[in-house]
Amino acid sequence: MKAVVITSPGGPEVLQLKEVDDPQIKDDEVLIRILATALNGADTLLRMGRYDPPKGDSLYPGLECSGTIEAVGKNVSRWKIGDQVCALVGGGGYAEKVAVPAGQVLPVPPGVSLQDAAAFPEVACTVWSTIFMISHLSKGETLLIHGGSSGIGTFAIQLATYLGVKVFVTAGSEEKLAACKNLGASVCINYKTEDFVARVKEETGGKGVDVILDNIGGSYLQRNIDSLNFDGRLFIIGFMGGIKTEINLAGLLARRLTVQASGLRNRSRDNKALIVSEVEKNVWPAIAAGKINPVVYKCFPFAEAAEAHRLMESSKHIGKILLLAP
């Protein structure tokens, strides 16, 4: 099969389409012939040699995909050859075929094309497993999403709004803020021209928001703490602003705050299967009802993976970037 290979750690130019061996499936896995995969921030870190894949996972980039099942392991009962699916994978999405544990496979949601379904698994599992399963974000609460126009942001806006949460977002351009508003965000803050802490306080009568979904990390930590209401929860899923900082702990104690963090990739197969099953039960019906739509900015063929990575690293996109198999 063909796969996009990281020839050596470095810039986008190190991604090259090469002929490689087909993956072999285990008894509890399925083989998916991939139609599309979607880019995630972790793919660029992997390419730079800063994010090693967990033991046993594919060395090729790509944490999600959509396609058609081509083979099933002997212990797999739910899926059959020919099923159209999307999946959360530990790696190997940038290839024509991938072996996936059966518990990480999802049906394509009704009303969504097989190609666009590739935009859902990673964002849906990330958002549901963090601010819902762990932070228990619930109807009537408020949520601040940093990077509202990202793949995760555009999905989280739609899901939270659908579930009766008032959504605040930060983004870096008027175009991105307009896109967030169209998806359902109530308060849109340009972090380049506004102090998000002051705006959050102003919009909440001085209280702050209940939950924050943060991909910035260090440089935002104190400001995030300052933006939270009593019993507020900060969930960190990325470190674009660094991993070290100094904070004043007094606010955590005074307002009973919780700081949480987790990733998806290094979880066990059983844990991923649980998250995927919760997503199918709680999120898929909203997609089927047309309340959450895929936000796809641009599609590239596998051979232009380097160009796709350049676009992602420019941060000009809104939503997801897809790669299409040969």
Automatic annotation (TrEMBL):
<dbReference type="InterPro" id="IPR013149">
    <property type="entry name" value="ADH-like_C"/>
</dbReference>
<feature type="domain" description="Enoyl reductase (ER)">
    <location>
        <begin position="10"/>
        <end position="323"/>
    </location>
</feature>
<dbReference type="Pfam" id="PF00107">
    <property type="entry name" value="ADH_zinc_N"/>
</dbReference>
<keyword id="KW-0560">Oxidoreductase</keyword>
<dbReference type="InterPro" id="IPR014189">
    <property type="entry name" value="Quinone_OxRdtase_PIG3"/>
</dbReference>
<keyword id="KW-0521">NADP</keyword>
<protein>
    <submittedName>
        <fullName>Oxidoreductase</fullName>
    </submittedName>
</protein>
<dbReference type="InterPro" id="IPR013154">
    <property type="entry name" value="ADH-like_N"/>
</dbReference>
<dbReference type="InterPro" id="IPR011032">
    <property type="entry name" value="GroES-like_sf"/>
</dbReference>
<dbReference type="InterPro" id="IPR020843">
    <property type="entry name" value="ER"/>
</dbReference>
<dbReference type="GO" id="GO:0016491">
    <property type="term" value="F:oxidoreductase activity"/>
</dbReference>
<dbReference type="Pfam" id="PF08240">
    <property type="entry name" value="ADH_N"/>
</dbReference>
<dbReference type="InterPro" id="IPR036291">
    <property type="entry name" value="NAD(P)-bd_dom_sf"/>
</dbReference>
